[in-house]
Amino acid sequence: MARKDGSPGRLKQIRETFTLTRKSDPNIGWILLAIFLGTIAVFAIIGTLLGMVFFFTPIGIAFGLLAAVIVFGRRAERAAYAQIEGQPGAAAAVLKSLKSGWFVTPALTMNKNQDVVHRVIGRPGVILVSEGPSSRVTHMLANERKKTARFVPDINIIEIQSGNDEGQIPLKKLNTKVRKQKRTLKPGQVTEVRKRLEALSTQPVSAPKGPMPKSVRSARGQRG
Question: How far apart are CA 115 and CA 85, in angstroms?
């Protein structure tokens, strides 16, 4: 049943997620059933041995449901990554699932091979995330880093290559990699940096006049 705001209800969302997951994980239904029944069986056996089967069985049902939900969530996430793996913009789609406090600008630059560089602004500073083979995106990241540094010279700029080449970060680990970066800015400073860089999309690319606000200059971080 749909909600008043037009979004699908929880049960419909679960059915849709299950259907999509089953496309790349055909045995998901049997796996979840086995986990659910197996957990109940373990608690029932424990209850039988202790002479408290009617006490432990309901607990087994609750834990069985919990275990099945956890496994389903993980396998559904894995299936979602598998379905977008290799598609242009896949990293941007993953980055946009970051929670509040992170600001994602997809496709800052793109070459003829559809290799792209995205920008994420958060408390660690500015994070440039590439999609494409390392041999092609290294130069793109370097160019975008130079351009960004002209606008925010005192802010930490981090480069991350997403992909499956050696030294790159797979999609399923991308958000974790971003969140684990050392925080160097306060929330207010993040807003100042974001506003400064948003000017890139409305003004000619040139170094802004005047120094950065003191609150941002104080957040010096080692670039890299």
Answer: 14
> Cα(97)–Cα(174) distance, rounded to whole angstroms?
11
Residue 85 pLDDT > 80, yes or no? Answer: no
DSSP class of 131: E
* Other beta carbons less than 10 A from residue 149's beta carbon: 15
- Cα atoms in the Cβ-side hemisphere of radius 13 Å centred on 82: 12
Q: Rounded distance, CA 94 to CA 76, Å?
A: 14
* Neighbouring residues of 162: CB distance < 8 A, sequence distance ≥ 6: 90, 91, 94, 129, 130, 131, 168, 169, 170, 171, 174
Q: What is the pTM assigned to this prediction? A: 0.66
> Residue 171 is encoded by which pair of tokens?
């999609």
Token reading at 29: 């239904």
Q: If you ran DSSP here, which 8-state letter would residue 12 be given? A: H
Q: Tell me which H or E stretch contains 115.
A: none
Query: If residue 59 lies in a helix (H) or strand (E), which one and from where to where?
Result: helix 53-84
